[in-house]
Amino acid sequence: MFKIGNVTIKNNIVLAPMAGVCNSAFRKIIKEMGCGLIYAEMVSDKGLVYDSKKTKDMLYFEECERPIVQQIFGSDLDTFVEAAKMVEDIMHPDIIDINMGCPVPKVAIKSQAGAALLKNPEKIYEIVSAVVKSVNVPVTVKIRSGWDNNSINAVEVAKIVEKAGASAICVHGRTRSQGYSGTVNLDIIKAVKESVDIPVIGNGDIKDIESAKRMFSYTGCDAIMIGRGVLGNPWLIKELVTYFDNGTIIDKPSYKEKIDMCFHHMDYLMKIKPKKVAVLEMRSHIAWYLKGMNGSQEVKNAIFRATNREDIEKILNNYLKKLENSI
Asked: 46: domain range?
């Protein structure tokens, strides 16, 4: 258990705000696995302020997902503040997060948002302090270790963020220029933890119990955030929650559980998205769920040609029968 501002979180396992993935359907599955805190995928400040329906639709969530964090990205102080107020009014999240870590060119270069803000510490203070003053919920900030290896400034930024009134900071131990290549730098996360009094969430390369243990023990962080490690493997959350609760190592999911999860996930997606969109989105998730399973490549190829739910169900049911007959 840990706290961010006045929000109590039942355990220290946190879902990362993965763009294009962390919609309500996916978040509900992660919540069912016992995740303590859910970050929704980032929304654009300008998208909200300019009344984009697509952006506003991204604020949809269900009460069972609480406590939930809504992340915002942008680079302009005034629109950031206005967007934060809108998120609070429309969605009523438990926490609002400011994205200062996204490395993708569309955000960090074209919009000069996300990780680009790490190059301007003065602006960081202005944005964080203004957002903190404008909303009634705790504000957190997600950063990277720096823009590149020549400008690693996570400790400096963390101190600024704390001074500006943020209630917690999440650190991904890579620079913007690294993207997701190389390995995560735990020393940076440790240094941040030692430099501030607010909770620090460690992020990067957590894919099993061992990497989670290492993140906690080496950095001393208050919580860990998991992103790509749960793609196709939401059971990792349950694995970690159970292990850190009582030391038990649970069994890995069976092939039947993985295929059942495909149906479960598709049910959730169909409720919140148009059928065609849900099918297209689900195809990627199925590929992740089936990764490493016997004969799955042929099945994944067929799934990516499927255009409706019925086809997907037929392909998966046939695959399940094939697996059962091979035992």
From this structure: 2-246
